[in-house]
Amino acid sequence: MAARHGAAALLRFATECARAAGLPEEKARDLAEVLVEGDLMGHDTHGLALLTPYLDSLAAGDMRAEGEPEVVSATPVAETWEGRKLPGPWLVRRAIAAAEKAADIFGLGAVSIARSHHIGCLAAYGPPVAARGRMLLLMCSDPATASVAPWGGTRRIITPNPVAAAWPTPEGPVLIDVSMSITTNGMTGRRRGEGTRFPGQWLLDADGNPTDDPNAFFTEPGGTLLPLGGVDAGHKGFALGLLVEALTSGLSGHGRAEAPTGWGANVFVLVLDPAKFGGAERFLAESGWMARAVHGNPPRPGFDAARLPGDGAMARKAKALAEGVALHPSIPPALEKLAARYGVALPDQVQSGSGS
Asked: What is the rounded CA–CA span in Å between residue 50 and residue 122?
């Protein structure tokens, strides 16, 4: 059985490592909380698996520890920030707070961020916004790299470009976190390291032939990740990926046309307050009806129940909080190296059923 760790212990460890690496307290805490939330939800390629590369990036000077984002432009409902490669989780949380402040008055608020560092698991940002009765739309791209070819093409031009959303229902939040490619760069690298193939033809090799072999992505010239929809309907996924490019790089005024380098993200945040539209009660009546319709839908063969987006993540989080977080096998060795590097005590293991 895999070793489990309490969420609080993992949070303490990640925060202390980030502080030892040079991040101020608030930035370290935000970074740690978002990464641990990723593991709690089961998105373990975007949880503590990112702690080492984040801190390596900080040591190399690609992630910046000190300073504030620059406000490039601002209206009462929309702002654009120069993120200055500051930690992504800290920047996104601040952007959500700014967008919520505008939404309190005007019904909506938006922030676009250029040159953020990587922002981690997008789903991690949604539950607090939904708990406050609001809707969140969050998306990002990385203009310094590419992994997805245009529909009908063979060379990489955009990233997986995830879209996340969250909103409340009387039964709990709806949480969406979907890449506009079938799989991600992180999962492709993990499968290559494990020597496993994908369960379907999720990539194209360098000649444009569908394949399930992750090694095809790492050739020269490289293969590509298929857009969401795959070989049958990938034109839809690529179109949505272009929309993300427009809302992130386009609105922030910084993108691929400038040929940037380094690891980072352009980000778009939108918060809406249903109370300023048709009313919070009517919104919850509609979202509640849909939640009940989904949960009451007869399951198809092989499924225990129909589910809303986010049901699985919230169930995994509840289980991890109760029983401890079972980290992916690749993560504990990385945490041991960080503990030695920064002189931080490793998080204690817990017995199943005691996840505090």
From this structure: 13
